[in-house]
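Here's a chain:
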Amino acid sequence: MNDSVGALIAARETRRWLSALPARPADTAEAYAIQEEVARRLGPVTAWKVGAHSLDSEPFRAPINRATIFDRVKRLPASLFQVIGMEAEIAYRLGRDLPPRAEPYSRKEVLDAVASVHPAFEIVDTRFAGFGSQDPLSHMADQMNHGALVVGPAIADWRSLDPLAERVALDVDGKREIETVGGNSAGDPVRLLAWMANVGVRGFGGLHAGDVVTTGSCIGTVFVRPGSRSVATYGTMGTIELTVE
């Protein structure tokens, strides 16, 4: 495991992308162990990404370090990334801790811990020589392809939000690339929040006040070129825009 952790850290520092990990993770637990150790070495973890392949499949997650979270910015340097994959998401910021406990948190308890909800862009990236070039466990070990998280302004009256009915469109340089309604493959993001509190982050001491949890793309992944301006327009949550130049 340590060889894979070192290789991923070195790839970030040198931008010499990996053809493969020194040893492929044997299972999900090993992939999580690698991503967690990389995250610990990179600095404080103040956000998480979580998703699922279908409405009832087991979720998956990855820690996000403070250094790759950007609040309400409209520009980022392209030099931060190897590839630029734009994903429009719904992000939840917690107002109080949800520490590990024996009794599972209910949906109401999880929602009561939320302080605000935000439109967000996650930029997906890779430390491998080619996006999607590796087996799923290796990409899981590589922070589940995380590059950066841009958190937009808090929305008003977030409790009235119906994520399954939320329309989301992405325009790149003025061209409509995709428009969906309830396009997140995981379905209800509150299911993902509850899974994070009850299962996903127990080894990290649970969720903490101020943490941001971004809950998967509503539009899939749209790869853009450096210099492109991306604008995500939500049905009720407003807009978020980002130029990576």
